């Protein structure tokens, strides 16, 4: 069977090669040649091992590649596969201005190489340029791309995972004024040739880009300053490059605006539960080189995938670098993107092959970054540093109602032959040779009967600190009924991992979102069983606090700091202050949930905010009133006299509605930013007021709040009840309680009670609402009680009690009339 390594390519022109070292056959000497028809109109073409064939299409489409294997005995074997071809980047070499690019859809292209090496290697980058006027670079906007695995996982795809088209599509669908504004700029999109390399190494490449842009500006006669936006990891690369130029290089970066877009200044988060799952699967790759399941591929374990990429990893990173800076995995251990240098630098927590958390690389990087600080500009020519965070302004957290990743399936080879002789079971057993499980499967496989494999991989989020719950469970169980009625079970693999202590639950913090299915299209195309039998969640990738560098990397943030609201117009104070001159977080006036937006996404709010910055008219955003508690605006639980509450200048009260107690007050403030509660004359005492009001503005929309508040003195509705009635005996104990009609006052805050109880021993409880008494004198006496709040007292409520016979000689107590209470 022949098939390409990918089945989805962006670009009408591509090259195809059949590497001899991955073409496997049981009878290689019997193969005369291989021919492929790519559906490009040229028919079958004979393919020589390691030869490059150019394949060109005139339009995007789904094409059928047909394969023909000609054998030496004259027999011909056929197969085919489906390949999706999309239009890719339309480029031309930089500097060819003869053809007008009126649609701004042709990108000029040029490569740069860093002048400075990092650990012996010079980074390279490819620039894709959208020249606004086809006249050279005169008004530059440099875009530093983020983490890009294309160099390793998808090297045949030009520009890798991210490119200028994706960036502009994001801008153009933002529903903001940003597309029109960016059309005035010459956009230089910096595409790292190795987007998973050390951040410092790519920063040196960006320095070369800045130097080149400045030369091009000068050649075009432009004195415009550079604007640099760094997306995700690119924000760190840009910060490092600009600061290093100021501190260590002998040229001027000529930049007056640095924009950090959801960059992990404190760290990025890949959930620990998911990393445990990756490691579990990776370890199975290491130990089981044969296919784990036949019939339907669940885990393609034909051979260690690191064998394909080993040479690439070594050539990209160099062999020395794996050891010079710490504990990096070797190429033969490569199976997870979390192991690359930039990943190790950015991840808050990295799980190694032994399921241990090792953060020495991240800690070293964070120390270096915080020591460098931020670009400051030059004397008389400062730089403005601003940030976009995709986390919710309201601090909305991720709820994780389902697993982050859950794959559950029962796999079985149901052919009659496999029921008699378990070829599948024997094959799996051979892949586990040397283990007792392998021996068991081979033994059970030769016995007749039905067999199946129960598979479950489940990675869960960490939601609370030190919860100590299970965050990963993975198991593959072999089950068989020998002779169709004797059940046996063999656990082929099983791992369980609980949440570690003292590790912050980054999965749940508000921040730029990582929605797993949005990044899994290629994987699903290769392994549709994952999509068909799996559920996939969403988690916080870049916490808002990290995107804003709260605490500047020198303050250890705690759980509450990561759960806080971050508001551009009201930034956090020291020591958790942000180093940025201005920042914006996510808010959508048309979405009542105001949840977190996707990582490095543009939208109406941050797009218009960025336009304001680009046009030197900064906007300091604040819609936090929509997620505030009503008590922030009206903190009082009781009003005694006319009281006015003030809102921000740009907030308008559009509705006031009294639902209870309308006779108690007048409320003023409609169509203003102040709300006034004015009590009426309340001769019978006060009462309960319930009302709602709606506030808002043009940018944030509106929000309705509900408030219940007591107006005036306590109501004159008290009465007394007694555990012994109103005729009581001298020397005995009784419980007397003040009661309200319909319990009207008892629920009000700051309510206490005052009593006048003559000739009795008294002990109060329940905020003086109840009195335990022991009468000390015969006679009939008035017992009185009244309620008090911040506005005053109710009228006295009086009840006469008759105290009868004494319990016996010597038990008489005489005391004066006493008044107790507050």
Describe this structure in words.
This is PGAP1-like protein. One of its GO terms (molecular function) is hydrolase activity, acting on ester bonds. It comes from Psychroflexus salarius. This protein is an alpha+beta fold and about 800 residues long. Among the domains are: about 10-85, Immunoglobulin-like (Sandwich); about 630-710, Immunoglobulin-like (Sandwich); about 720-820, Immunoglobulin-like. Helix content is about 20%, strand content about 35%. Strands 8-9-10-12-11-13-14-17-25 form a 9-stranded mixed sheet, sandwiched between helices. Strands 34, 36, 39, 40, 41 and 42 form a 6-stranded mixed sheet that branches. A 5-stranded mixed sheet has the order 1-7-6-3-4, with no helix packed on it. Helix 4 crosses helix 5 and helix 12 (about 425-430) runs antiparallel to helix 13.
Describe the SSE topology.
Layout: E1 8-10, E2 13-17, E3 31-37, E4 44-47, E5 52-56, E6 61-71, E7 76-86, E8 91-93, E9 107-113, E10 124-130, E11 140-144, H1 150-153, H2 164-172, H3 178-182, E12 186-192, H4 199-219, E13 226-231, H5 233-248, E14 255-261, H6 272-287, H7 306-317, H8 321-324, H9 341-346, H10 360-372, E15 377-378, E16 381-382, E17 384-392, E18 405-411, H11 416-420, H12 423-431, H13 436-445, E19 449-459, E20 470-482, E21 486-498, E22 511-515, H14 521-526, H15 528-533, E23 534-536, E24 538-543, H16 544-547, H17 559-562, E25 582-586, H18 604-614, H19 630-633, E26 638-639, E27 643-646, E28 652-660, E29 665-668, E30 674-679, E31 687-697, E32 701-711, E33 718-722, E34 727-729, E35 734-740, E36 752-758, E37 760-765, E38 770-775, E39 779-789, E40 792-793, E41 797-804, E42 817-821
Parallel strand pairs: 1-7, 8-9, 11-12, 11-13, 13-14, 14-17, 17-25, 26-32, 34-41
Antiparallel strand pairs: 2-5, 3-4, 3-6, 6-7, 9-10, 10-12, 15-16, 18-19, 18-23, 19-20, 20-21, 22-24, 27-30, 28-31, 29-30, 31-32, 33-35, 35-38, 36-39, 36-42, 37-38, 39-40, 39-41
Protein name: PGAP1-like protein
Pfam families: PGAP1
Domain GPI inositol-deacylase PGAP1-like alpha/beta: 200-287
């Amino acid at each position: 069977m022949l098939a390409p390594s990918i089945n989805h390519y962006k670009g009408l022109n591509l090259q195809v090669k059949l590497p001899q070292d991955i073409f496997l056959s049981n009878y290689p000497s019997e193969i005369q040649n291989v021919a492929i028809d790519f559906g490009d109109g040229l028919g079958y073409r004979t393919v020589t091992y390691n030869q490059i064939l150019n394949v060109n299409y005139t339009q995007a489409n789904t094409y059928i590649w047909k394969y023909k294997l000609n054998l030496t005995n004259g027999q011909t074997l056929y197969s085919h596969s489906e390949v999706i071809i999309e239009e890719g980047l339309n480029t031309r070499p930089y500097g060819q201005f003869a053809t007008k690019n009126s649609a701004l859809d042709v990108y000029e292209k040029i490569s740069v190489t860093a002048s400075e090496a990092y650990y012996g290697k010079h980074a390279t980058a490819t620039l894709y340029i959208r020249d606004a006027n086809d006249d050279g670079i005169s008004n530059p906007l440099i875009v530093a791309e983020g983490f890009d695995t294309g160099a390793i996982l998808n090297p045949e795809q030009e520009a890798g995972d991210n490119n200028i088209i994706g960036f502009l599509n994001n801008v153009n669908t933002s529903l903001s004024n940003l597309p029109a504004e960016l059309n005035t700029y010459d956009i230089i999109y910096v595409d790292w040739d190795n987007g998973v390399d050390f951040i410092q190494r790519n920063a040196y490449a960006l320095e070369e880009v800045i130097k080149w842009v400045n030369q091009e500006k000068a050649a075009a006669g432009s004195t415009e300053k550079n604007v640099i936006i760094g997306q995700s990891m690119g924000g760190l690369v840009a910060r490092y490059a600009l600061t290093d130029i100021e501190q260590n290089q002998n040229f001027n970066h000529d930049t007056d605006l640095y924009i950090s877009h959801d960059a992990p200044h404190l760290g990025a988060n890949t959930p620990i539960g998911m990393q445990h799952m990756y490691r579990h699967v990776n370890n199975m790759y290491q130990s089981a080189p044969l296919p784990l399941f036949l019939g339907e591929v669940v885990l393609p374990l034909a051979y260690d995938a690191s064998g394909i990429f080993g040479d690439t990893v070594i050539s990209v990173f160099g062999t020395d670098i794996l050891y010079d800076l710490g504990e990096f995995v070797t190429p033969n251990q490569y199976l997870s993107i979390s192991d690359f240098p930039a990943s190790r630098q950015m991840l808050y927590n990295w799980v190694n092959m032994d399921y241990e958390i090792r953060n020495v690389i991240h800690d070293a990087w964070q120390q270096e970054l915080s020591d460098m600080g931020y670009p400051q500009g030059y004397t008389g020519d400062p730089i403005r540093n601003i940030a976009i965070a995709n986390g919710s302004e309201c601090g909305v957290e991720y709820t994780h109602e389902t697993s982050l990743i859950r794959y559950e399936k029962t796999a079985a080879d149901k052919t009659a032959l496999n029921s008699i002789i378990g070829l599948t079971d024997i094959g799996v057993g051979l892949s586990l040779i040397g283990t007792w499980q392998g021996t068991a499967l081979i033994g059970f496989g030769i016995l007749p009967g039905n067999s199946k494999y129960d598979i479950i991989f489940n990675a869960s989020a960490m939601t609370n600190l030190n919860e100590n719950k299970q965050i990963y469970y993975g198991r593959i169980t072999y089950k068989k009924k020998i002779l169709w009625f004797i059940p046996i079970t063999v656990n082929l693999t099983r791992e369980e991992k609980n949440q570690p202590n003292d590790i912050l639950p980054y999965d749940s913090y508000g921040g730029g979102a990582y929605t797993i299915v949005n990044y899994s299209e290629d994987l699903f195309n290769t392994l549709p069983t994952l999509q068909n039998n799996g559920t996939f969640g969403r988690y916080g990738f870049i916490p808002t606090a990290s995107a804003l560098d709260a605490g500047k990397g020198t303050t250890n943030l705690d759980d509450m700091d990561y759960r806080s609201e971050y508001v551009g117009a009201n930034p956090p104070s020291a020591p958790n202050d942000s180093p940025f001159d201005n920042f914006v977080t996510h808010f959508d006036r048309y979405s009542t949930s105001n949840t977190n937006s996707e990582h490095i996404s543009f939208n109406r709010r941050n797009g218009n905010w960025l336009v304001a910055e680009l046009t030197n008219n900064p906007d300091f955003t604040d819609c936090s009133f929509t997620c505030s508690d009503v008590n922030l605006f009206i903190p009082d639980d009781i009003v005694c006299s006319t009281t006015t509450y003030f809102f921000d200048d740009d907030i308008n009260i559009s509705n006031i509605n009294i639902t209870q107690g309308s006779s108690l007050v007048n409320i003023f403030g409609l169509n203003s930013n102040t709300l006034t509660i004015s009590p009426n004359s309340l001769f019978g005492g006060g009462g309960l007021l319930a009302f709602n009001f709606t506030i808002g503005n043009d940018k944030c929309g509106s929000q309705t709040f509900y408030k219940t508040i007591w107006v005036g003195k306590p109501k004159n509705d008290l009465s007394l009840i007694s555990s012994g009635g109103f005729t009581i005996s001298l020397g005995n104990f009784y419980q007397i309680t003040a009661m309200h009609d319909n319990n009207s006052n008892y629920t009000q805050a700051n309510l206490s009670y005052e009593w006048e109880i003559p000739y009795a021993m008294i002990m109060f409880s329940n905020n003086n609402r109840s009195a335990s008494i022991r009468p000390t004198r015969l006679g009939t006496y008035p017992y009185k009680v009244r309620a008090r709040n911040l506005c005053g007292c109710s009228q006295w409520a009086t009840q006469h009690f008759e105290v009868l016979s004494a319990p016996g000689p010597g038990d008489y107590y005489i005391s004066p009339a006493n008044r107790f209470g507050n």
